[in-house]
Amino acid sequence: MKIVRNILLIALSILPVVSFAQWDKYFENKGLRIDYSHSGRQGVDYFTIEAMKEIPFYSGSHKNLIDRTDNGAYLISLYDKNTKKLIFSKGVSSLFNEWLSMDEASRMCGNFEEVIIVPCPKEDVEIEIAFSVRDSVNNFKEVVRYGIDKNEIRPLDFFSKQAKPSVPHIITLNETGREIDKRVDLVLIPVGYTLEDREKMMQDLQKMSGYMFSEEPYKSLKGKIQITAVERYAKESGIGGLKDSKVKDSDLGVVYNTFGSPRYIMTRNLWDVYDVIDRVPCDAIIMVCNSDTYGGGGIYNYYATCYMGEKSKEVIVHEFSHSFAGLGDEYAENDSQAGVTSSKVEPYEDNVTTLVDFSKKWGDMIDKDTPIPTPQTEEYSNKVGVFEGASYISKGFYRPYLHCMMRDLTPFCPVCTKSIQNIVNLYCE
Ligand SMILES: [Zn+2]
Predict the structure, then answer these.
(1) For burial by CB atoms within 10 Å, which of 89, 97, 277, 413 has the most?
(2) How much distance in Å is there from the Cα of 103 to the middle of ligand 1?
(3) Whole-model pTM above 0.85?
(4) Ligand 1 centre distance from Cα of residue 412 (Å)
(5) Over the stretch 55-79, which tens digit does the pLDDT of each residue have?
(6) Cα–Cα distances in Å, from 127 out to 64, 90, 114?
């Protein structure tokens, strides 16, 4: 028994070394920004690489290079071309994925901008990039794999319209004192603020940074989440998209009324958004929108948006938890078809289940005497269970708690709390 335990201890102590060795063997201390088009319709996906840019930072963990969370609608993987060894992967979701659940996506072709930032391969390392989508039972299925021609990777200055690109002014709003690869780098991008709005913009950025730490578990994770903002100004003040809006050319293409849902704020101009933060370490993006009309949005490993008004504190904590932690909505109503999925398949979000394959979910957090499904009664109001109604659907989809930030903007349930803590720790190792 002792021998077995010793072997286990040795194995555990070797693991991190092996992972860091992977970083040293394949990657250098820079990032590679890959801009690609994601086009197609329901059941058809095309991924076309449009540009590859060498950027000064890769701000993710150097140890956790392979994504084992099994979250997101898509998986992007890097392989060593010679050995075919998997050396990096990341799960992501996107606006394209939400568009697929619209009626028009069965007839028309959609085309969306997407971006992935990966570690930059060393001079002598040849790599391949693979794009995978979910199959009918939510397993990843590789769609296409490309060999990357390193001559196509250009320095940032190559893409600059100016002879001398200006380095943006960065405002640090929460300093962690941690190394870049051992913290979460959250970047706030102000949207729809003109130079005349400068004072309000500075106040809103401070407010937004404060909102992020207003709720647990984020409050306790403050020492691990670095928040910076980019100082920038729009031509027009405010956010467009609504019928009565005076804004004609909305800043960075950020608008209300995405997919016909009035309070859903999104942009399709993702490459413009990334141009703003090319020279900033970034693991997650929040676009702080200069508008007092209720709204926001958040897509996993894509970005979050939020208005600035009375409920902004709750809205951003909710939306950021979609975009950063990949949590699903725990409410059952929706004002758009976007994101609606089948109850015959187990969803990949940590905090929702169809009970098709509950083994991967929160069973270990439920008391033995709590029935599954769990009655929505006072008796179970502070207990982890399996409550019907989640993911915009009242039947066949279940959530872990009666109330949660992901359902009704109340404090996070224990399952979501654990999930957020896990993700933050993956960035910090
Ligand atoms: Zn929850």
Answers:
(1) 413
(2) 29
(3) yes
(4) 5
(5) 999 999 999 999 999 999 999 999 9
(6) 18, 15, 20
